[in-house]
Write a structure and sequence with these properties.
Low-confidence stretches: none
Distance between the termini: 40 Å
Strand content: over 45%
Number of helices: 0
Number of strands: 11
Structural class: mainly beta
Mean pLDDT: 95
Helix content: under 10%
Order of helices and strands: EEEEEEEEEEE
Radius of gyration: 14 Å
Amino acid sequence: DVQLQASGGGLVQAGGSLRLSCAASGLSFDDYAIGWFRQVPGKAREFVAGIAIGRNDGFTRYADSVKGRFTISRDNAKSTMYLQMNSLKPEDTAVYYCAASLLLGIPIPNTPTKYNYWGQGTLVTVSS
């Protein structure tokens, strides 16, 4: 059974940092591109960052709103993905979801429909 478990969310003041983790099980982790999305009530799920695998291993993609502040990474040996979030802003407040996609090419998919598996989400709250 495929499971993605997101963790690391919490309450942080503006300008602070958090590191989200997502542990994967039940799948060959290095066969999947991974992504982070976020969602707030009343809005669509928003792409945050993605990282490729295979021939495109290490290629990343970021939403304009987080470029220069967030860094996505993966540790295939640990079947874990990360999202390092720095210089957090109140508008970053959301539930953050990790996801895995069988699409291995470039561009890294940035729409929820292209991702096959999803974690449960972890809440990030940034105070002003």
